[in-house]
Structures are given as structure tokens and as C-alpha cells.
User: Fold these one by one.
Assistant:
Number 1:
Amino acid sequence: MAAVGECSLPAPWRPVSLTHVEYLAGDFSGQLLAYLSLCPIFIIVGFVTLIIFKRELHTISFLGGLAFNEGVNWLIKNIIREPRPCEEAHSTVTTKYGMPSSHSQFIWFFSVYSFLFLYLRMHQTNNARFLDLLWRHVLSICLVTVAFLVSYSRVYLLYHTWSQVLYGGVAGSIMAIAWFAFTQEILTPLFPRIAAWPASEFFLIRDTSLIPNILWFEYTVTRAEARNRQRKLGTKLQ
């Protein structure tokens, strides 16, 4: 029998690590960049939340594009098989190969697709043209800034070389443009038919592709319905 406080293990334990990012101890900039490199995880969580509460086909297609982009990245990595730099610097890495950077490819796919969506898909229907363009420009600058910082973090933290990050960004951007065109030209015409499926109606999946600005539409409809219900409630109380 093993003594009290001791245990015998048949083999070493392995961690389940999806967000394990290492940085140099005492490096505050490295710590900030390590947290910033977790942006893909936050984006995925945000997409899942949106799909659960909105159930909109274009959002589902966007997430499908991100998943397809990750699959392409895995395929390219296993074809090229270029190792990561300074492998001994990190105790745990999720993948052995580094070309191209999956973080860079992911974040540039997300940023470029969002940029195309903002300027080609969403259109303002009210008179606030200046404010509409302003918030789009500000949001686009924020998207590009985050993409650059996430890409830079992978080099700073010694997970990738500059070439691995660069090719990841190029691959992600090309994939985003191709997936946006595929969604607009192939999938969008099919969305009304898909939304009419019994399964889609059961799960309340909807198509908003014909609505130019879903944010403005939901705001105006919700405000009008709230005022209508308030009037009805006031009439009943009189």
C-alpha cells in the first residue's frame, strides 16, 4: 500500500489547454500581449452568444467561414511543416508547426470580413450619414489595430516568426474576401429558402439579408412596439 499522502500514477498527466499563452516573467508588455492574443477565443464566444440569441443566417455563415478558415490553416501547416521559432521557450504549444500563424490568419479573416460587411453589406436608412460613416471608420480602424496587435503578439511572445505571421495575415485576408463573395453571391439567395425550412422555423432561425441595417431596423421596430404597448397600457388604465 502507498503511504499516506502519496499516490502512484501509471503515467504522466497531460493538461487540456486551449488558452495557454506564456510570457516572460516580469514583462508587463508581454503580459498585455498574451491577453490580447486570446482575442480569437473571445470572438468565438461572442459568435456563439449571438447565434444563440439572434439566430441569424448571415452570422451563422460568418462563423462557418471562421471554422473553414481554421481548417485551411491546419491543412497548410501540415503540408509545409515549418517549425515554430524557439520551441524550447514554451513548455506547452497546441500545434507543432508554425507556418502560417493560426492566430494571424484568424484575426485577419475576422477583421477583413467585418470590414467588407460594414461597407458593402450595411447601409444606413436614416439621415445621419455623417455619423454613420464616422462610426464605420472608427470601428474599421479598431479592427485593423487589433489585428496588427494580435499578429505582433505572436512574434513578441516567440510563438511565430515574422514570415509566419505575414503569410497568416495574407491567407486570412484572401479567405475572408473569398468567403464574403461566396456568402453574398451563393448563400444569400438561398437564405430565404433555408429560413422557410421546418427545422429553421422550429429553431427560430431567420434571414435578415434584405434589411440594409439590422441594428437600425431592430432599434426602430422595438421603439415603435414599445410606444404602441405603452399607449395601449395607458388606455386600459384610464
Number 2:
Amino acid sequence: MPDDQVLEKSALHQRAAAGMLKNTWIVGSSGYPLTDWVLVPYTHQNLTWTQHAFNEKIGEVQRIAREAFARLKGRWTCLQKRTEVKLQDLPVVIGACCVLHNICELRKEEMEPDLRYELVDDEMVPDNSIRSVTASQARENIAHNLLHHGLAGTAFF
């Protein structure tokens, strides 16, 4: 199932639809649509300098997230394959893995090199990649501020 369809079926999407993510941006890849709460890179050809700089910053945030998920999946091999857990129990199992993983990260516990996990991204750009004119303008403003006001770096996001 494409990323945008998975998102639309998620609890996160339900929270956003209920207005619980106001004034919040979640960075997504180009496999997700631009919405009032999902900020994605520009995907069209011939980007301006501003758009290119924005995509560079989005890429930095995505790299950090990918590395975190790779460590999570490397540490908890049950997340690397199809699970035997009942579907209704899956959020609890994933949540437990995330909590334990965060404890390991906070304690700066090293991972064995042989536990490294390589994530594979098979993203597909959705047919309707811009679902909000407001979000499109907000992205333009963010991109402009990143380039022209020296607001570079992941701390901005």
C-alpha cells in the first residue's frame, strides 16, 4: 500500500483530522502528500534555490529519522519481519520496543555492529501530492525563511 494510503488509515491521521495537530509539522518524504500538518519536499523539476535549500534541510531531518528507525529495527529484530503477534496487540509490542529503545538511546548504549539494519525506502509519489493550498503557502514561507533569514539547521523544524 502506498505511504499516503497508510497515513490516511492511521491514528495519527485521525488525530490530525480532529484538530489535535494544530501548529505542528511532521516531516514526511515525497511519498506523503503535503497537508496542513505533513511537510514534504518539493518534487517537481527545476527547483529554485529556495526550494533546493528547503529540500536539503528536509533531507537532513529525514536522514536523522531513518537512522533512528534503523537503530530501532536493528535493536529489536522482531520489527524486521512479519510478526506472529495478533494485529490488535501489535501497537503494544511496537510501543514497548520504542520505549525500551529510547531507554537504550538515553543511556547511550552501543549497538553491536552486526545488528546494523539497512532500511529500504520504496516511496511512491502520490497522485495528489498537494492537498492544501494553505500548506503549500506555509511551505513556501518556511523555505524562504530557511534560505533568506539564516534559519538553517534541524533545530528549526
Number 3:
Amino acid sequence: MEEEMEKKRFGVLLCAEDSELVRKKYGGYFGVFVRMLAEEGERWDVYRVARGEFPDDDELALYNGFVITGSCNDAHGNDPWIHQLLSLLQKLNSINKKVLGICFGHQILGRALGGKVCRSPSGWDIGIRTINLSSSSSLKLPSKLSIIECHRDEIWELPPKAEVIAWSEKTGIEMFRYGDHIMGIQGHPEYTKDILFHLIDRLTQHNFIHQDFAMESRLKVAMWEPDKDSWKRICVSFLKGPL
């Protein structure tokens, strides 16, 4: 029992339904995040928040940190589970719990802290994008990194205490920090190219993007590689580093 208590414990707040490819190949999006972030001796739990599964308030102190995943829902939406998630994130902020938000997770964190999220005026960003990173961050970031992107919403405005730590030609807030305990990343450090190709196909099938845009995106993705190892180091360093 004592050994169990000493284990680092993390929770994934799963905001998406697993596609067939991701479920069969990676054990779902939870498996994708565990593959990137988990280390031996840790406990990782999943809460399917898009289905209304949330940790109880008295469980929050048991966790070293939480990760919020991407989603096909809008972070500026008003579904009941989104409002419940906003309330949870405000509680986690109030107790200085480590929280890492990815894509939708990045956006919903911005909203929970008082920022504004909206549709990007320049439309979808799908592919592998080079982003610029701030040299002033305590994370000791490189000046540029490539990351997989798949979004049409973005954080338009952050609260005054938040610090923008990365940006690109397409999106003004690619990453932000809020204190030492909250970080958002607009791109997908956890994605592999096959996950992105599968998403492009699904977006095309459901008429979210046009066939020609999809073809162009696939060709560009095939030409570049994301800096996955660097992103893994950044995410692990933030989530498991000291406050």
C-alpha cells in the first residue's frame, strides 16, 4: 500500500471518441498519450469527460497532474460536459495542479482562465508546421520546432497573467504558460503521421474540408517530419518538473 501511495499518478481527461485506427493500433487516444508521457512506476488513469466521466473533487489531490486531449467539439461551445470541464479546470488552477492541454485542451484551458476562443479567421491548419518558441521561457525551448497541427479554432485572447511562449505565421498563440502549473500547446505533439492522415480522410468524408485541400495537406505532410522527441521532452519536463 505504501508503494502504491508513492507512485506518481496522472489523469488523462479524454475529450474525444477513439477512431477505429487509433483504437486498434494504439489502444485509443489514452494509449497514444501514455506512450508519449508515461514512465515506469507511474499510474495513469483515464476520464472520458466527453461522456460525462469526471474525477471527484476529493480525488484531485491524489494526482500529480492532468492532460487534456484534443476533441472534435468546439472549446467555445456550450455542451454540458464542456461547462463541467471548465469548472474542473478552474478548481485545478485554484490548487496549483499541473495541467497540460493539447489542441482542444489548450483552447479550453485558455477559456477556463478567462481568455477568448474562436474560429480562426484564416481557416483550418492541417499539416506539419514550424513554430517559433520564446527564449525567455524557463523550459529552455529551442527557437523553432515542427509539430503536427489539425485545428480550425484558436485562442484569440489570453488573460493578463498568461505568457505566450510560441507562435507561428498561422496562429498567434501556439503555446502559453500560466504560472508554473499550466501549459497549453495548440499542435499535437502526441500524433503520428498515420493518425493525421486518418483524420484528413475522416474530415474529407464528413465534408469538413474539400478534397483538393485534403490532397494538398497529405502531400505536404509526406514531405516533413515533426520534432516528436523534442516535444516529448518538453511535455514530460513540464508535467513532471517542480512547480
